[in-house]
Design a protein that fits this description.
By secondary structure, the chain is of the alpha+beta class. The protein has 2 domains: about 35 residues, no CATH class; about 290 residues, T-fold, CATH 3.10.520. It has 10 helices and 15 strands. The strands form 4 sheets. It has an 8-stranded antiparallel sheet with strand order 1-2-3-4-7-12-13-14. Strand 8 and strand 9 form a beta hairpin. Helix 1 packs across helix 2 and helix 9 packs antiparallel against helix 10.
Length: about 325
């Protein structure tokens, strides 16, 4: 077995010359350093936010054990659930929405501040304060559907009385996990919590690749039917797809999509089927993907082109079939 390039036997003899105990300590230290200097990829996974998560990372240069990394990620996701989940009745968000006098934690304040800035930037097209509106349409934390115009008007008037972070929380979760991994020295990673954050190289030493789901009704399993595959760049990035092909209902032969325009109070009706956004963070990618689905194809394309920090991939119905558009930095290849 080679310990270092060159003659390993001579290396051991040098260490053991003189003090045997000191030599043994130096040998173990050298072996540990050698181990840390080599690529060693692992994958950790578990349950979070109503589904599963998977984190792939390179332990090169990392001294934290895989068991501690797994436990830390689980703890982080538990804190997020206890803070931002609208389905956890004891979370800070649920208690806030119930009108309780709750202590707003730094995490809650952080995502709320980001969401408020995004609301201002998008002219209200992205709005976590539209929770009453999402509820009356059955796409929030209730099972209502097809509300009367009066209820829609009441929900619009109640804007801000309740919050719903669903359009940003998963992306935000990816960023929080990635921040932890950065803190222990990880530079090659892929964090998948329903949305994606990735950076660096995959176990083959190449770019990470991400599958883009085909936005057809009935495509309920991520990765089962792909529109194509995107090869990521090496820099830190969030990649998120939003679409109306999994969350919708039909009544009287009409489809009602889960993307609600907070400005009008009604589900969107346009030909954009899905929007995939690549941004510096997964939280921004998450929010901007939702924003694109609200504003539709032409405005979404103009928005992406106006932002040098974003790339995008749009799938739309041309009237004669499904077509795609991609910005210059977002190439998609067939599977």
């Amino acid at each position: 077995m080679h310990i270092l390039n060159g003659n390993s036997a001579n290396f051991v003899q040098i260490l053991y010359h003189g003090d045997m105990k000191r030599g043994f300590f130096l040998l173990i230290t050298a072996l540990l350093c050698l181990s840390c200097s080599r690529d060693r990829y692992i994958a950790v996974s578990g349950y979070a936010q109503g589904g599963t998560y998977t984190v792939k990372l390179n332990l090169k240069g990392v001294e934290t054990s895989p068991a501690v990394i797994q436990a830390s990620i689980d703890s982080i996701l538990l804190v997020i659930d206890n803070t931002l989940s609208g389905y956890n009745r004891n979370s800070v968000l649920s208690r806030y929405n119930a009108g309780e006098d709750v202590n707003l934690t730094p995490m809650f304040r952080d995502i709320l501040a980001l969401s408020q800035s995004l609301k201002e930037e998008t002219g209200g097209a992205f709005d976590v304060g539209a929770a009453p509106l999402f509820d009356v349409w059955g796409f929030g934390f209730t099972r209502d559907s097809l509300p009367e115009p009066e209820r829609i008007a009441e929900a619009i008037a109640a804007n801000g009385s309740k919050l719903n972070f669903n359009a940003i929380a998963q992306g935000y979760s990816c960023d929080v996990v990635a921040d932890y991994l950065h803190g222990i020295g990880v530079t090659d990673m892929l964090v998948d919590i329903g949305e994606i954050f990735c950076e660096g190289r995959n176990p083959s030493g190449r770019n990470w690749t991400i599958g883009i789901d085909s936005p057809v009704d009935g495509n309920e399993t991520p990765g089962e039917t792909l529109q194509g595959v995107h090869m990521c760049s090496f820099e830190p990035q969030g990649i998120v797809t939003s679409g109306n092909y999994r969350k919708f209902y039909e009544k009287d032969g009409r489809k009602y999509a889960h993307t609600i325009d907070p400005r009008t109070g009604y589900p969107v009706e346009h030909n954009l089927l899905s929007a995939t956004i690549k941004a510096p963070t997964a939280a921004l990618a998450d929010a901007y993907a939702t924003y694109c689905m609200v504003i539709g194809l032409e405005e979404a394309r103009a928005f992406i082109l106006s932002r040098p920090d974003l790339e995008g991939f749009l799938v739309y119905d041309s009237g004669i079939g499904m077509e795609t558009w991609a910005s210059d930095g977002f190439q998609v290849t067939s599977r």
